[in-house]
Amino acid sequence: MGLKTIKASSMADAASWYCATILLALILLASIRESTDSTTEDDSFRGKQFLQMNRPCDEIYVVGEGETLHTISDKCCDPFIVERNPHIHDPDDVFPGLVIKITPYSRPSNV
């Protein structure tokens, strides 16, 4: 009776490994297929589609390719970006991936 239990157990282990391997292969195949379908020639990096959206500015902002502090300031209504980010020593030295704090400036309404 012990031999039959060991044999059944090893067959169950082999079947579960086989299923796990097939599942992993299908996931990898789907991800490769998806990445080749969505990639175009002018996409220089992943996530470019998120930079092209008109998204509201979050409190934490990651500088994208081609952006300057002036364009970010206009887009996010924050004229005091340099003052609120002491890690920016040179306003002209802004690069993609730089993380900055944004606090939108709200003009007081005349009541």
Order of helices and strands: HHEHHE
Helix content: 40-55%
Report the count of strand segments.
2
Going across the biggest sheet, name each strand in turn.
1-2
Enumerate how many helices there are, as a single number.
Answer: 4
Outline type? rod-shaped
Major sheet description: 2 strands, antiparallel
Describe the structure.
The protein has 111 residues and is mostly helical. Helices cover 48% and strands 5% of the residues. It contains 4 helices and 2 strands. A two-stranded antiparallel sheet has the order 1-2. The protein is rod-shaped and about 75 Å long. The chain starts with a helix and ends in a 10-residue tail after the last strand. The model has no long low-confidence stretch (mean pLDDT 78).
Briefly summarize what is shown.
This protein has helices spanning 2-38, 48-51, 69-76, 81-84; strands at 60-62, 99-101. With 111 residues, the protein is mainly α.
